Amino acid sequence: MARMKALSASAFLLFIGLSAGLGRGAEPAGTVVFAHGMGVPYRLYEELSPVRRVFEERGYRFLVARTPTAGTLEGRAEALAREVRRLVPEGLYHLVGHSMGGLDARLAIHAYDLGDRCRSLTTLATPHHGSALADFVVKTYDETLEVPQGISDVLAMLGGDIREVRQLTTARLKEFNREVKNDPRVDYYSVGFRIPRPVEAYAAIPVMWIAQRLHAAVDSPENDGPVSVESSKWGTYMGTIEGDHWSETAPIPFGGRLIYLDVFGEVAGHLRRADRRRDR
User: Hey, what domains does the chain have and what are their CATH numbers?
Assistant: First the structure.
């Protein structure tokens, strides 16, 4: 991608997509199950046929897990495990999770033994080490028992329920990471995102400007609004892409263009290359 930053030459070569020769007629390479983030309806991705096409062109069947738009990590992980078994009753598959969907997937693999058939988990802008922005919102709420205007918009972007936002704080994710271990049968990959400054020149939605600035003010200048680059790193880190939290996986302009198909294209290409190496 033209806006991709901080990728070494070797990581970039590993992460690029397949050649145009792999079309819809190619033999299916496998199945990808997508886990969406908090506050996002699964229908957004089910009805985005271009996303499905991106994976199909690389030989993958693309399925969307119908998990709740809100809820605790425990509840969402249980729902994800149930969905995986419904969507892929047999055979191997890959998981791809955006934002909290990546945490849901990690917990589902750990708690429901999904590693018996799950080949990999790729997380996009997932707050593996917590969100300093969530810390700020929770601290503000606990001190005032309310969320001031402006911060309330950020809370809504994080899901709207202060109880759920507490699960995204750095303190809670430290506990989560001690409890939820990687499954040795599963390959873990991650991608981070950042908004270049000035944020107004790139992100189309004003609440993202507030989130990016608040996050930067609490010592995380490299962030996509809710999630910092450092917090996004888990397993094999594939690099950092310029984008905001909503434009990464949805048709919302970033810097005057749409990037979500590029993001999914790079994920699909990487999975195909990884599968080829693994199957040799």
Answer: 4-129+174-204+222-279 (3.40.50.1820)
